């Protein structure tokens, strides 16, 4: 007779095996870690996938779109159940979606839009609103004067959305000649150095002193501030985005005016939930939205304006950053 204890243990063991075997395999394809926020995205996303019983494989192409396609093919060969992609290049990433489609693997477009009809879900923030909030803030602080716009690369669809949002708000002020857009830079990458060089180049070649720099994100803002002569720092209104540590410190110090805070937790958590649903072969219902003529199931979260007056009630309260981190070097 087999003792009851062993029979019991046998069943306990076997009941655990299928769940291990059935764990949903999620492939997360990042872009790079140049901007702080992506560490947070990865950490929150992977831990939520684990909490939901899934397994996460992360690949990072370090800003190289061709490498991202290669890594996508590797994940497809490794038989992931779903691919979650932060596209390096929204057009080039269409090839990733096509390769995944052939293997029957759904793709989630994370934070940045991939221009394909076959994307299963797009989750991000209202990126046009990001640009609108930046421009509205600048206009409130400086309703007349010279404006410089510095945006990210067009390979990132968000850059185009930020720019469109900014222009939609600024246009009436340009038309009525209240403000003048003295430069409208589009960078090759989301690079602090490039933003610094562009600002420097502008200041060297132009007499019109900028009153506002609409910098699309915090890295760009930090670069632009570095190029400003001392007498202009704190006088020029500088916007940003991401609530990066450096920028929040600059905001407290009065060098940068504001940032746009996009709470990463709801984005990463929701994306992980959708990833598990799709991996199980279920349908994930979003709102049908159209981007560049392509309709997808999507969720767009709300961006939040943060400046010196509300950083404690927003980014600090949310645990995005601590007062100690803001006080440290
Ligand atoms: C994101 C921003 C980020 C930028 C650079 C954009 O697509 O929406 O939050 O600052 O990429 O990584």
Automatic annotation (TrEMBL):
<dbReference type="InterPro" id="IPR050555">
    <property type="entry name" value="Bact_Solute-Bind_Prot2"/>
</dbReference>
<protein>
    <submittedName>
        <fullName>Substrate-binding domain-containing protein</fullName>
    </submittedName>
</protein>
<keyword id="KW-0732">Signal</keyword>
<dbReference type="Pfam" id="PF13407">
    <property type="entry name" value="Peripla_BP_4"/>
</dbReference>
<feature type="domain" description="Periplasmic binding protein">
    <location>
        <begin position="27"/>
        <end position="282"/>
    </location>
</feature>
<comment type="similarity">
    <text>Belongs to the bacterial solute-binding protein 2 family.</text>
</comment>
<dbReference type="InterPro" id="IPR025997">
    <property type="entry name" value="SBP_2_dom"/>
</dbReference>
<dbReference type="InterPro" id="IPR028082">
    <property type="entry name" value="Peripla_BP_I"/>
</dbReference>
């Amino acid at each position: 007779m087999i003792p009851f204890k062993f029979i019991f243990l046998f069943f306990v063991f076997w009941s655990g095996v299928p769940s291990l075997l059935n764990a949903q395999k999620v492939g997360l394809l990042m872009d790079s870690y140049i901007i702080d926020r992506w560490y947070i995205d990865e950490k929150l996303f992977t831990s939520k996938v684990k909490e939901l019983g899934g397994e996460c494989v992360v690949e990072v192409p370090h800003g190289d779109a061709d490498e991202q396609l290669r890594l996508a093919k590797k994940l497809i060969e490794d038989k992931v159940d779903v691919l979650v992609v932060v596209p390096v290049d929204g057009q080039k990433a269409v090839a990733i979606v096509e390769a995944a489609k052939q293997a029957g693997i759904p793709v989630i477009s994370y934070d940045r839009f991939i221009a394909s009809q076959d994307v299963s879900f797009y989750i991000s923030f209202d990126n046009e609103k990001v640009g609108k909030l930046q421009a509205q803030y600048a206009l409130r602080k400086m309703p007349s004067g010279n404006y410089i716009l510095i945006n990210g690369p067009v390979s990132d669809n968000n850059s185009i959305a930020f720019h469109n949002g900014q222009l939609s708000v600024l246009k009436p002020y340009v038309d009525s000649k209240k403000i003048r857009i003295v430069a409208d830079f589009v960078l090759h990458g989301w690079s602090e150095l490039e933003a610094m060089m562009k600002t420097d180049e502008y200041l060297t070649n132009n007499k019109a002193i900028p009153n506002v720099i609409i910098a699309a994100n915090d890295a760009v803002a930090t670069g632009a501030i570095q190029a400003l002569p001392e007498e202009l720092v704190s006088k020029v209104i500088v916007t940003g985005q991401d609530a990066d540590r450096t920028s929040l410190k600059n905001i407290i110090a009065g060098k940068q005016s504001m940032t746009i805070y996009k709470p990463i937790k709801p984005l990463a958590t929701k994306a992980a939930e959708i990833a598990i649903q799709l991996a199980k072969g279920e349908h994930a219902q979003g709102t049908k939205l159209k981007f560049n003529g392509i309709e997808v199931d999507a969720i767009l979260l709300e961006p939040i304006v943060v400046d010196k007056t509300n950083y404690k009630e927003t980014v600090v309260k949310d645990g995005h950053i601590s007062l100690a981190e803001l006080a440290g070097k």
